Amino acid sequence: MKQIEAVIRPHKLDAVREALIDNGITGMTIEEVRGFGRQKGHKLMYRGSEYHVDFMPKIKLVMVVVDSLVDRIVSTITQTAKTGTIGDGKIFITPVEEVVRVRTEESGECAL
User: Fold this and answer.
1) Which has the minimum average pLDDT: 49-53, 66-70, 78-82?
2) Nearest Cα to 13, choosing from 3, 28, 23, 24?
3) Is beta strand 29-35 parallel, antiparallel or unpaired with respect to 56-65?
4) What does pTM read for this prediction?
5) pLDDT-based confidence at 56, cuts 50/70/90?
6) Could you give the CA distance from residue 55 to residue 48 in angstroms, rounded to a whole number?
7) d(CA 12, CA 61)
């Protein structure tokens, strides 16, 4: 099993979520996060004053999937979230040793 964390633009969330559901994802967690990478923020004007926004708003999707779905899920996120400009996001994949469903105490892949 693998945990996939994807940081994407907020306006891409609905399209990515629908595409993931169409590709076999049965559950995910999302968080509203802020950060920066190469994008480095941007400048805004407010009441005639310029100010710099260092941390850009992003959405972080977290899901745990069976190994056989990883490539398809990464491809789906990449194709759906991509705009072709700096700030499209990142995808992180890490191994998961165990999963336990609290309600039934099932463990392993059947707990997903």
Assistant:
1) 49-53
2) 28
3) antiparallel
4) 0.84
5) confident
6) 21
7) 11
